[in-house]
C-alpha cells in the first residue's frame, strides 16, 4: 500500500468504515499482543491508517446486484452469493471504488438542519 490509498472495511456483511493510508507500507514486527498466538512469522507488513467509522454501514447483500458486476474475477473479496472470502486485503478497481463511495454517500450524507444554519 502507498500513502493516500483507501481501504474499505468489511465486517459481518457490512462496509462499516473507510481508512486512508497516512504513509507507505513498511516492514514491521508482529504486534506484541499477537506474539505467540499464531504460526505467522514475526515480521510482516505494516501500514498506518486514518480510520473513519461510518455512521450508517452499507449492507453488502442489499447492494450486491450493483457491486457484483464490478468485482475482479480473480482475488475477489466476495463469492457469487455475496458472502465474503476470508482475507485481509483485496484489490479494488476504480469502478468498484466509485460504486462503493456512491453507496456509502447515499447512507451517510451530512445534512444541515435549520438550527445549524442560524
Describe the structure.
There is one protein chain. With 118 residues, the protein is an alpha+beta fold. It is built from 3 helices and 5 strands; from the N terminus they run βββββααα. The protein has one domain. It has helices spanning 60-67, 94-107, 114-117; strands at residues 6-11, 14-21, 26-29, 43-46, 49-59. A hairpin with a 2-residue loop joins strand 1 (6-11) and strand 2 (14-21). It is globular, with a radius of gyration of 17 Å.
Q: What is the topology, as strand order, of the major beta sheet?
A: 1-2-5
Number of alpha- plus pi-helical segments: 3
How big is the Rg?
A: 17 Å
By DSSP, the count of extended strands is: 5
Write the layout of secondary structure elements.
Elements: E1 6-11, E2 14-21, E3 26-29, E4 43-46, E5 49-59, H1 60-67, H2 94-107, H3 114-117
Antiparallel strand pairs: 1-2, 2-5, 3-4
Key features of this structure:
3 helices; three-stranded antiparallel β-sheet
Task: Describe, in short, the structure shown.
The chain has 118 residues and is an alpha+beta fold. The protein has helices at residues 60-67, 94-107, 114-117; strands at 6-11, 14-21, 26-29, 43-46, 49-59. It is built from 3 helices and 5 strands.
